[in-house]
Amino acid sequence: MFDDKPETTRMNMIQAIRDAQDVMLGKDDNVVVYGQDVGYFGGVFRCTEGLQAKYGTQRVFDAPISESGIVGSAIGMGAYGLRPCVEVQFADYMFPAYDQITQEAARLRYRSNGQFTAPLVIRMPTGGGIFGGQTHSQSPESLFTHVSGLKTVIPSNPYDAKGLLIASIEDDDPVIFLEPKRLYNGPFDGHHDKPVVPWSKHPKGEVPTGHYTVPLGKADIVREGKDVTILAYGTMVFVAETAATETGIDAEIIDLRSLLPLDIETIVESVRKTGRCVIVHEATLTSGFGAELSAQVQEECFYHLEAPVMRVAGWDTPYPHAQEWHYFPGPARVGEALKSVMEAI
Amino acid sequence: MAREENDYAPLKLHVPEPPVRPGDTPTFDKFVVPEAGSVRKPPIDTDFDQIRDLGFDIIRVLDDEGKAVGPWAEDISDDQLEAGLRAMMRTRAFDERMLKAQRQGKTSFYIQCTGEEAIATGHQMALAQGDMNFPTYRQQGLLIAQDWPVTKMMNQIYSNEQDELRGRQLPVLYSFKEAGFFTVSGNLSTQYIQAVGWAMASAIKGDTKVASAWIGDGATAEGDFHTALVFASVYKPPVILNVVDNQWAISSFHGIAGAESSTFAERAHGYGLPSLRVDGNDWVAVYAASLWAIERARRGHGPTMIEWVTYRAGAHSTSDDPSKYRPKTEHEAWPLGDPIKRMKQHLIAKDLWSEERHTQAEAQYADEMREAAIEAESHGTLHDGPGPSAAEMFEQVYKDVPPHLRRQRQKMGI
Ligand SMILES: Cc1ncc(C[n+]2csc(CCOP(=O)(O)OP(=O)(O)O)c2C)c(N)n1
Ligand SMILES: [Mg+2]
Q1: Whether residue B322 sits in one domain with residue B228
Q2: DSSP-based three-state secondary structure for A231
Q3: CATH of domain A220-343
Q4: CA-CA to B355 of 20 to 30 Å: which in A83, A282, B14, B75?
């Protein structure tokens, strides 16, 4: 992954995402970056701050408030030969672009037999935990993983965010890049009443300068254990770690990092070892990505399982405002699932 | 056979930039301010192609001395003028109180409409009982102008025990059906076409109710805006298509929504719809133009787009810092001034008002809002005191709570 032994800098996730775009704008003239408030201002979450000043308005610019326009134009640019990396301000606002994403970007290659492709990245902040109510909190990942032709990536820390974003921009297929906004400034563990440790104090806040990649389709075992495998991604990786610590259960935690392509080998190896599996995501339960994971684990590991595969997820309601922490699947809910699979002998 | 290229110069992408940025001297020197009273007022049944000019000019009534001049200076009663000023002042006092409450951590979020108070208050006073607004998050004036209880609004902002939306919705995204105030979505532009549908239903049922659709300059870029114009043009239902051009959409000036190339009102013409362009900081013009369009719609002459020319004097929301992308004092340079100051000047010129009464009213409304806030806070604030129960999160997803949600609610232990 590295050309040499890398120099590193301390970064939070916002800076890492910005740095990945900076590296790619510098390395490849075909990379362009745009979206609402992305140009002069540098994005409402500051993920493109300074990039317009450095690369000019021909490479980094503001877009009208039209998500379908942003994605549709990026497809056109991709077909021309550019590599657009566009921002949708919140994942909740990608729906006007859903037609362009699922019917167009995802299928340009297939329907033209490879004559036309859409090598674009669509970045969008995802997930709740900021009292954003139903339109600043959703986790729509399964609406992408269900669509053939798309890749879906979701980092949980600055190191992965930069490496995965560079890999996504270099990828020749359309990539949905989901950024858990609750993790931008630190590894939030679900205890909303406690301050978040900043990334500057976390080992994954140590980010190599310059170019490196974290390959799509490679999961990361972030905690080794022998009793139960937890499959998580994004914000839930830290919630899972906390639940394991608090329950004292020796859980092996796998950060999927990319949902499609999925690193099923790492998952299967772990579940065959532990014999138990708990899947955690913030998105609503029914038809969530957990259902897909559960099915695959069952198909591959049935004879190794000591307990039913369990899912912990957001309730099947819109994301509420005041009841946010009752909705959010925090460490207590994950802990209960861990205990229940341990008891099911 | 295609032509071969020869000596064309390389193209360049045009990316609109506002005339000034932080550190520059604010200017609106390209903005032409037509004289008050200079725009004609046609009868309400005039065909759209006879009034295209009204989509370029700016209807203004109050002149620099505060006199109401020209054909749009309706016969408005003195009481109504005073009510207009008071509604604007109460809206501003409400915003000030709620901004403070947000800063004190009593809620998560707030959106003010400072500088735009005339638009919603003036428009509401021209609507009738039974009409329906499809507002954005910046039209609190629609509620305040009809003396809707401000504690109800505050309860929603605090997500407290008395919140009629049971804590489910982001602050300021109110829903008050009785007040003709449709549930506000966080997703921009979606409601513009819904308003057209509501107005179509009014026509289908043979009623005379009018829908009023609201959108900001920035959000006109969304597809739903254009879809709404097509439907309005095809079915000619009784709908007012309001576009509030407050020059900014978070950090993007209105050039990013195409305002360098055409006015927003002009866009209606492409769909064969009439439009008015109006000084949104002139309460009398707002009221007169609204009344004209609403009457036109109610008498069966179809939709009108109204572009309200104004300026977002405050931050986009409590999550925004505008000094990062525009000069701090830009609002002072805005050529159409402040709507409250202008209305006050008008009432004083008419001998209906005085500096003393103004100061008195300011104090009165600050008190009113403080007391209303204390009352609302006695029912809880977002992080403190009683609030809607966690179990209520599962209600109103469907008409009846289905079995899978009942199971999830039980799992939560309530
Ligand atoms: C579909 C969608 N995209 C993006 C956003 C994020 N957003 C919220 S307000 C806003 C700016 C809107 O500007 P404008 O329409 O001019 O209204 P104003 O805020 O000026 O009243 C943006 C981009 C959103 N709410 N919905
Ligand atoms: Mg605006």
Answers
A1: yes
A2: strand
A3: 3.40.50.920
A4: B75
Res B2: pLDDT: 78
B209 and B237 Cβ atoms separated by less than 8 Å: no
Distance between CA atoms of A88 and A286, rounded to whole angstroms?
A: 25
pLDDT of residue A3: 56
What is the overall mean pLDDT for chain A? 97
Say if B73 falls within a structural domain. yes
Residue B390: what are its φ and ψ, rounded to 5°? Answer: -60, -35
Look at residue B413 in the predicted model and tell me its pLDDT.
83
Name every protein residue with a CB atom under 6 angstroms from any ligand 1 atom.
A 36, 65, 89, 93, 96; B 136, 138, 186-188, 216-219, 244, 246, 248-250, 312, 316
| CATH number, residue B274 | 3.40.50.970
Distance, in Å, from the CA atom of B339 to the CA atom of B351, rounded to the nearest integer, reads: 18
Q: Which fold has domain A8-208?
A: Rossmann fold (3.40.50)
Which residues in chain A touch residue B252, judged by CB atoms under 8 angstroms apart? 36-37, 41, 62, 64-65
3-state secondary structure chain B: CCCCCCCCCCCCCCCCCCCCCCCCCCCCCCCCCCCCCCCCCCCCCCCHHHCHHHHCCCECCECCCCCECCCCCCCCCHHHHHHHHHHHHHHHHHHHHHHHHHHCCCCCCCCCCCCCHHHHHHHHHHCCCCCEEECCCCCCHHHHCCCCCHHHHHHHHHCCCCCCCCCCCCCCCCCEHHHCECCCCCCCCHHHHHHHHHHHHHHHCCCCCCEEEEEECHHHHCHHHHHHHHHHHHHCCCEEEEEEECCEECCEEHHHHCCCCCCHHHHHHCCCCCEEEEECCCHHHHHHHHHHHHHHHHCCCCCEEEEEECCCCCCCCCCCCHHHCCCCCHHHHCCCCCHHHHHHHHHHHCCCCCHHHHHHHHHHHHHHHHHHHHHHHCCCECCECCCCCHHHHHCCCCCCCCHHHHHHHHHCCC
Which range of residues forms the domain containing residue B409? Answer: 390-414
Beta bridge partners of B59: B278
**Neighbouring C-alpha atoms within 13 Å toward the C-beta of A316:** 16
Contacts of B185 in chain A (CB under 8 A): 135
- Cβ–Cβ contacts within 10 Å for residue A116, how many? 13
For residue A314, give the chain B residue with the closest CA: B408
The whole-number pLDDT of residue B169 equals 97
pLDDT tens-digit series, residues A48-63: 999 999 999 999 999 9
Strands (E), A15-138: 31-35, 60-62, 83-87, 121-126
Instruction: Say whether both B399 and B342 belong to one domain.
Output: no
Q: Contact at 8 Å (CB) between A311 and A288?
A: yes
The residues spanned by each domain of chain A are 8-208, 220-343
DSSP secondary structure code for residue A205 in this structure: G
Residue with token string 């010129």: B349
Task: With a cut of 80, say whether residue A345 has pLDDT above it.
Answer: no
Do B79 and B107 sit in the same domain of this protein?
yes
Q: Do B81 and B157 share a structural domain? A: yes
Q: Which chain B residues touch A45 with a CB distance below 8 Å? A: none
Q: What is the pTM of this model?
A: 0.97
Which residues line ion ligand 2, judged by CB < 5 Å? Answer: B 216-218, 246, 249
**Cα(A281)–Cα(A294) distance, rounded to whole angstroms?**
12
Give the Cα separation of B245 and B220 in Å (integer). Answer: 10
Q: Which of residues 214-273 of B touch A (CB under 8 A)?
A: 218-219, 221-224, 249-252, 256-258
Nearest residue of chain B to residue A322 (CA atoms): B167
Whether the CB of B401 is below 8 Å from some CB of chain A: the reply is no
Side chain identity, residue A119: P
Which ligand sits closest to the CA of B316? 1
Question: Cβ A37–B251 below 8 Å, yes or no?
Answer: yes
Ranges of chain B whose pLDDT falls below 50: none
